[in-house]
Amino acid sequence: MRTRKNVLLLFSKPPAPGLVKTRLTTLKDGVFAPEVASALYHCMLFDVVEICCAALATLEARAAGAEEATEARAGEPAALGAGEPVRDQYELVISTTPATNVDVMRKLFEDAGTWPRELVLIADEGASFDEHYNHAFAQAWERGADAVLSMGADMPALTAADVIGGFEALHRLDGVP
Fold it and tell me: What is the pTM of this model?
């Protein structure tokens, strides 16, 4: 059975006043004080991480059920067109910048209490958005990822179904040249 490592890559910043959601603040053309916008981002970040944890738990439960079904069919002839069975594993990676923010983010999540899964924190680098994005993806591939789903951490309308659907779409492409 082949193992497929799936990474959910979240891009985030520490929820610091003047650093996040600045377009919503009086620093730009918004109406919120920087502290209010930062608190809003903090809530969105934690909500998104909780939703992602729930989605990954659902995907892992499905993978365990599929693995049990595969083991139960061991010794039976393979279905026509069936590929090699896959064992899916999932990892949640939060990317931030600069590297000094990794410790800030780690403390933020530790201070919030226990999370239902390990949260891996990395730093992305670059001179442009594309370079930061590519660097984070390169780190995911270096960590052994076979599939990477990425998103920003400030998506208040995100649902677990969105995350699950994203991985399902990636898995349909597995093995496609």
Answer: 0.89
Distance, in Å, from the CA atom of 152 to the CA atom of 160, rounded to the nearest integer, reads 15
Residues of the chain under the 50 pLDDT cut? 78-81
**Which residue intervals of 73-159 are DSSP H helices?**
100-111, 129-142
Could you tell me which residues come within 8 angstroms of residue 135 by beta carbon, excluding any fewer than 6 positions away? Answer: 124, 125, 126
Centre a 10 Å sphere on the Cβ of residue 14 and count the other Cβ atoms it contains: 19
Q: Please tell me the distance from the alpha carbon of residue 94 to that of residue 150, in angstroms, as a whole number.
A: 10
Strand partners, 71: none
Which residues fall within 8 angstroms of residue 112, CB to CB, at 6 or more apart? 46
